[in-house]
Design a protein that fits this description.
Layout: E1 3-9, H1 13-25, E2 31-37, H2 45-50, E3 55-61, E4 64-73, H3 74-77
């Protein structure tokens, strides 16, 4: 059984680099990885906030938010 890992980003160069590294690094046998581009899926910003995301790129695994770098605040994406 795999765990969902959700990667939130905004499409900036920092985010795209992080997305590529996440895709290369996470074991797809352990994690179902979902990529969410918040610039294109603004309706999911509330979901990201509820998960504890304050800036992107960020990864949520098992309900825990991991901020990877500071590309953009969620408030800037609204």
């Amino acid at each position: 059984m795999s765990t969902t890992a959700t990667f939130y980003h905004a499409g900036c160069p920092v985010c795209v680099a992080a997305e590529q590294k996440i895709a290369e690094s996470l074991d797809t046998n352990r994690y179902d990885v979902e990529i969410v581009h918040l610039g294109e899926a603004k309706e999911r910003i509330g979901e990201a906030e509820a998960a504890g995301i304050i800036s992107v790129p960020a990864l949520v695994i098992d309900g825990q938010a991991f901020h990877i770098n500071h590309g953009a605040d969620l408030t800037d994406l609204k």
